[in-house]
Design a protein that fits this description.
single chain; alpha/beta; eight-stranded parallel β-sheet; 12 helices; manganese; arginase activity; Ureohydrolase_dom_sf; metal-binding; hydrolase
Length: 344
């Protein structure tokens, strides 16, 4: 049935004439209040301490590290929030309002950008900022979860399960009290969104995925067709001249590959599949923005942390670099952090 699919894949995105971006801007967003577990805010600095910049420099990527986004420590009381069911709404808005203009600043000086989360609620500000700079944008959301709930449909009230609904043109009318047009006026049309790796979806999210005819490839689909065919179909669904934003939640990977994350789900992507996704997007020459979210260095054993760190670093390397760079010093740093956390 798919005997010619390899040729189709090559035609779509494996073009030898592509010039890979060399200038990469990195910004950490150590935000953790979109969910309930502490430690995810440690990830940006932990990745740096474990040789992220050195690794990318060895891959022939010119790095500009902008440090971490400065987060407000004093925000409006939750009593004034228009959405009472959302936890830490004011903090979420303060973080993302600060993040949105920074994306254009980084892109004005670089070919592409990498956002180091933080929980996945920062995907709203990252993509919204990207849309301001590059309106002709497509979004690939790699995640075990759809993150598509509204303020009125979320069971938990955790806003890391809602960022995509804030971005979609078709759902903006349900967020009128957020005044999104004041600071995030550009919306993403539903036909330029592709999900990969879904396996834990709430009923409302399932309804919206079908109602808006959003391209959503579950793990069942990946197991059935294979990741090569899934990427072929994903790229066929996106406008061929749009830039691409990849938002990668580490929990998209199987929990045995990346256990140090806040909401792990069994039956996820293998590391090979995760790397294939990022590489397929990179070689289009259109990948311009990348988020990596939900890596939590405070969760799991030392072995869990080492496995998740290795997977996260390899995903970043594959997305940003056109050749391999070595990962060094990971084992020692993981052991040291595990000792520190156990002493607390």
């Amino acid at each position: 049935m798919f005997k010619n699919s390899a040729n189709t894949v090559i035609r779509n995105y494996a073009k030898t004439s592509i010039k890979v971006s060399k200038k990469l801007g990195i910004l950490g967003v150590p935000f953790s209040k979109g969910q309930g577990k502490t430690g995810v805010d440690l990830a940006p600095d932990f990745l740096r301490e474990n040789g992220l910049l050195t690794m990318l420099n060895k891959c022939n990527v010119s790095i500009s590290d902008y440090g971490n986004l400065k987060l407000e420590t004093h925000v409006t009381s939750e009593d004034n929030s228009p959405y009472k069911r959302i936890k830490n709404y004011a903090e979420f808005m303060a973080c993302n309002k600060a993040l949105i203009p920074r994306i254009s600043e980084v892109l004005n000086e670089n070919d592409m950008f990498l956002i180091l989360g933080g929980d996945h609620s920062i995907g709203f500000g990252s993509v919204a900022g990207h849309l301001l700079h590059t309106p002709n944008l497509s979004l690939v959301w790699v995640d075990a979860h759809a993150d598509l709930n509204l303020h009125s449909t979320s069971y938990s009230g955790n806003i890391h399960g809602m960022p995509v609904s804030l971005l979609l043109k078709e759902l903006r009318k349900y967020w009128l009290q957020a005044d999104l047009y004041q600071f995030a006026p550009k919306c993403l049309p539903a036909d330029q969104l592709v999900y990969i790796g879904l396996r834990d979806i709430d009923p409302f999210e399932d309804y919206i995925l079908n109602k808006l005819n959003i391209k959503a490839f579950s793990m069942d689909a990946i197991d059935r067709f294979g990741i090569s065919k899934i990427m072929e179909m994903s790229l066929d669904a996106l406008k061929p001249y749009n830039k691409i934003h990849l938002s990668f939640d580490i929990d998209a990977l199987d929990m045995y590959v990346a256990p140090s994350t806040g909401t792990p789900v069994r039956g996820g992507l293998t590391l090979t599949e995760g790397l294939y996704i990022t590489d397929a997007l990179r070689v289009t020459g259109r990948l311009q923005g990348i988020d990596v979210a939900e890596f939590n260095p405070a969760l799991g054993t030392g072995d869990d942390l080492e496995s998740t760190l290795n997977a996260t670093m390899r995903i970043i390397r594959k997305a940003c670099a056109d050749r391999e760079g070595k990962l060094t010093g990971i084992k020692e740093n993981v052991i040291n952090l595990s000792k520190e956390l156990n002493e607390k």
